[in-house]
Amino acid sequence: MSKIKIAELFYSIQGEGRYMGVPSVFLRTFGCNFKCAGFGMPRGELSEEANNIDPIKYTDYKMLPLVSTGCDSYASWDPRFKDLSPLLTTDAIVERIMEILPHGEWRDEHLVITGGEPLLGWQKQYPDLLSHPKMKGLKEITFETNGTFRLTKEFKQYLHTWKYHDVDVDVDFWRDVTFSVSAKLPCSGEPWSDAIKPERVCEYEEYGTAYLKFVIATEEDFKDAERAIAEYRAAGFTGHVYLMPVGGVENVYAMNNRNVALLAMKHGLRYSDRLQVPLFKNEWGT
Ligand code: SF4
Question: What is the phi-psi region of residue 253: left when phi exceeds 0, alpha when psi lies from -120 to 50, beta otherwise?
Fold first, then answer.
């Protein structure tokens, strides 16, 4: 039976992007190819905040400290915290989802498969999970990805049945698939050549709806976003583009959100909030 290493599994409201405000189950997989230690730091500097957290002190994910710099979901990929993320069978994951859904079944809720980087290690397991009989009512899925991984041949075949409805797929299993691509700009601390992969995102567009979401704090970040957008468009990307303020904690978010909204308006781009920050202080499980 397939197993997936799960950092978090919780029910909340989607705070970002296309499905902002939609009640959603979040499945946070373990593992990422990046560290994004540059977020919230002066350009060229990397955060040590998460590195200074002693994993020995924590036995429960929810007790982990929040960080104001670097990746706000550090425990979903840092090997020092890997023991907090159990390897669960797809059956066990589905049972847990049924427990946290308000009606014990899928109705109008949406599933967010996030990370870490959800396309890094688990593409082989998703068909097992998503084809489980109890997942039948699920109609909308988002993969929150950094946009650097190819889809495997097998996973593409699986997604193809939903996008094109062209084989004998059970009608109850047709899904609307979204790739929410948070491409990492230099303010993340990741090198451009590793992070900006337009051909990958164009491939996602063949199997679902894809959009780009850039985390922004300064005008300099916006100039990087403009350069990246030009590269994605040149490669044939046709989807929407969102600007989202940096800030996994309230004070950082509050310093940025209005300016980023104004920047988005000025340039005719979409603004994505981070509703989980003002609503829930971005605590674990929100
Ligand atoms: S890609 Fe996302 S999960 Fe991975 S390190 Fe960067 S912010 Fe964190």
Answer: alpha
CB of 73 closer than 6 angstroms to any ligand 1 atom: yes
Measured distance CA(242)–CA(258) in Å, rounded: 14
251: burial class by Cβ within 10 Å (0-12, 13-18, 19+)?
Answer: exposed
**Which residues lie below 8 Å from residue 17, measured CB to CB, with a gap of 6+?**
142, 180, 211, 213, 242, 244, 272
d(CA 29, CA 97): 14
Cβ of 4 less than 6 Å from ligand 1: no
pLDDT value at position 217? 86
Model confidence, pTM: 0.94
Mean pLDDT over the full length of the chain: 92
Residue 268 — left, alpha, or beta (φ > 0 → left; ψ -120 to 50 → alpha)? left
- Mean pLDDT calculated for residue range 228-239: 98
In this predicted structure, the answer to whether residue 162 has a pLDDT above a threshold of 80 is no
CA of 246 to the centre of ligand 1 (A): 13
